[in-house]
């Protein structure tokens, strides 16, 4: 089957690779000419484990272009960013649908972008000759290829039975396939992200209490996570969540609800707690003008170079405003910060190092290195991940919700 994927970011590119894996011919369209040229030469525009190999393996089935082809099936994977008022900006999605309609008025159009509940139905009303479906994407950055190849479920939101069957074949998997209407598929996507964000904010609140009462949140998370009704995932306390999706999806959902006169109290609270969590890390740093802070890890999570809504960047901005000297290090992400090529250089002469992203090499920084390079070996672990936490040597260690280790 020949499929066209529009937008070659994390979702579009990884989806295209998945379809090519299944021996479909895929035409990938993107406005970004440079990105298309690089992809045509087998160069991945994003840092993702296994992506270059996957591109090479599927080279003969993937075409990259800036021109929209005539196609029977279009998958939309363009961005749906946050507007200033918190709502979801659908302008790219709308522009793409309009173009598809002008090229192939009876095409099947599958939404992979995250769009607010009701969007697909509205588009169906505006373009009755197109056949729409909503198939939300659940991959995580950093493990995108693996997640795409081993999904937990595929949600197919379509009224058109024939299209639903085509999509069941197209996204063939051993995981459960759930057939629903498009609005339910859209809400399922937002509910999943919101629930994960609630779990993170929940454990971050417990972490703050653990600091007060002298408990260890890591052990609490382990203890509660053993209950299968709770589960161990997404109970890692730290500097809070960031990334291209949780913050903007929560804003979109809570804004949509508010516009309908409804308050999503739990989800709104998760967002407030996340904001407070960054302030909590800032308070642990105890910033003052002239202090030199080294931020270790800048991407919003390990395994990616994505800096969208990265907590490290938000922290850097606040520190810089307070007159603090900030140096940074990240193995993949490139920023405008005073970014160094190595951990050694980033922490050299620093008063304090703060772990913001749990990359393997950052988790493994030795106490000896910190003592040798830093002005004073003080480590705030914003991800509770440091490998030497129980043998810190002369390092003054402070995690989030776990007893300090001071020598
Ligand atoms: P992205 O920003 O990485 O990529 C979007 C791509 O679309 C860009 O390459 C851009 O040039 C292209 N584009 C924009 N307008 C276009 C147009 N009119 N025609 C052709 N190309 C166009 O985005 P992403 O992170 O892949 O996210 C895409 C959607 O998927 C969003 O709705 C997001 O919420 C959702 N999503 C993302 C993830 C993730 O992990 N990043 C996971 C699940 C769902
Ligand atoms: C998240 C979801 O996990 C995906 O299922 C979803 O498809 C995607 O959003 C999306 O819609 O874009 P992603 O943002 O790539 O994926 O990464 P996560 O692993 O979910 O991490 C998000 C943030 O939460 C990171 O900043 C991470 O550090 C933080 N986090 C995660 C915690 O602070 N604690 C945890 O226990 C887990």
Strand content: 5-15%
Strand order of the largest sheet: 3-2-1-4-5-6-7-8
Number of strands: 14
CATH topology of the largest domain: Rossmann fold
CATH superfamily of the largest domain: NAD(P)-binding Rossmann-like Domain
Mean pLDDT, rounded to whole units?
A: 97
Main beta-sheet strand count, sense and barrel state:
8 strands, mixed
- Indicate how many domains the architecture comprises: 2
The percentage helix is 40-55%
Describe the protein's architecture and organization.
This protein has 407 residues and is of the alpha/beta class. The protein has 15 helices and 14 strands. The chain has helices at residues 10-21, 33-40, 51-57, 91-103, 119-126, 144-149, 161-170, 182-213, 217-225, 246-259, 265-285, 311-321, 343-347, 360-363, 367-373; strands at residues 2-6, 25-29, 62-65, 73-76, 108-111, 131-134, 154-158, 177-180, 292-296, 325-329, 338-339, 352-355, 378-381, 396-398. The chain has an eight-stranded mixed beta sheet, sandwiched between helices. A six-stranded parallel beta sheet has the order 11-10-9-12-13-14. The relative contact order is 0.09. Bound molecules: nicotinamide-adenine-dinucleotide and uridine-5'-diphosphate-glucuronic acid (UGA). The site of nicotinamide-adenine-dinucleotide has 26 residues, from α1 and α4. InterPro entries: 6-PGluconate_DH-like_C_sf, NAD(P)-bd_dom_sf, UDP-Glc/GDP-Man, UDP-Glc/GDP-Man_DH_C, UDP-Glc/GDP-Man_DH_C_sf, UDP-Glc/GDP-Man_DH_dimer, UDP-Glc/GDP-Man_DH_N, UDPglc_DH_bac.
């Amino acid at each position: 089957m020949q499929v066209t994927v529009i937008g070659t970011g994390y979702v579009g590119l990884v989806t295209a690779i998945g379809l090519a894996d299944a021996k479909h011919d895929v035409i990938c369209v993107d406005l970004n000419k440079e990105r298309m040229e690089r992809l045509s030469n087998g160069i991945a525009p994003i840092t993702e484990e296994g992506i270059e190999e996957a591109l090479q393996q599927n080279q003969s089935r993937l075409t990259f272009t800036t021109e929209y082809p005539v196609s029977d099936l279009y998958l939309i994977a363009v961005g749906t960013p946050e507007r200033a008022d918190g709502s979801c900006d659908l302008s790219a999605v709308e522009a793409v649908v309009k173009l598809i309609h002008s090229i192939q008025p009876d095409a099947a159009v599958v939404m992979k972008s995250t769009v607010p509940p009701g969007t697909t139905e509205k588009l169906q009303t505006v373009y009755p000759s197109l056949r729409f479906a909503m198939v939300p994407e659940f991959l995580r950055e950093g493990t995108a290829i693996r997640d795409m190849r081993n999904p937990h479920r595929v949600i197919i939101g379509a009224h058109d039975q024939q299209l639903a069957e085509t999509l069941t074949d197209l996204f063939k998997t051993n995981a459960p396939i759930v057939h629903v209407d498009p609005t339910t598929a859209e809400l399922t996507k937002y509910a999943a992200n919101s629930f994960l964000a609630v779990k993170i904010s929940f454990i971050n609140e417990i972490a703050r209490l653990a600091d007060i009462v002298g408990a260890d949140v890591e052990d609490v998370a382990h203890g509660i996570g053993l209950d299968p009704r709770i589960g161990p995932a997404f109970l890692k306390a730290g500097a809070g969540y960031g990334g291209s999706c949780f913050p903007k999806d929560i804003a979109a959902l809570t804004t949509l609800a508010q516009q309908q006169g409804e308050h999503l109290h739990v989800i709104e609270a998760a967002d407030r707690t996340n904001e407070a969590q960054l302030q909590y890390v800032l308070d642990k740093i105890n910033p003052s003008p002239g202090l030199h802070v080294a931020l270790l890890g800048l991407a919003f999570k390990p395994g990616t170079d994505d800096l969208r809504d990265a907590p490290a960047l938000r922290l850097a901005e606040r520190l810089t405003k307070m007159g603090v000297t900030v140096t940074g290090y990240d193995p993949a992400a490139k920023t405008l910060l005073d970014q160094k090529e190595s951990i050694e250089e980033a922490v050299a002469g620093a008063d304090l190092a703060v772990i913001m992203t749990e990359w393997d090499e950052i988790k493994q920084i030795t106490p000896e290195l910190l003592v040798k390079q830093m002005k004073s070996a003080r480590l705030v672990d914003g991800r509770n991940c440091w490998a030497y936490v129980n043998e810190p040597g002369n390092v003054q260690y402070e995690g989030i919700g776990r007893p300090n280790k001071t020598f």
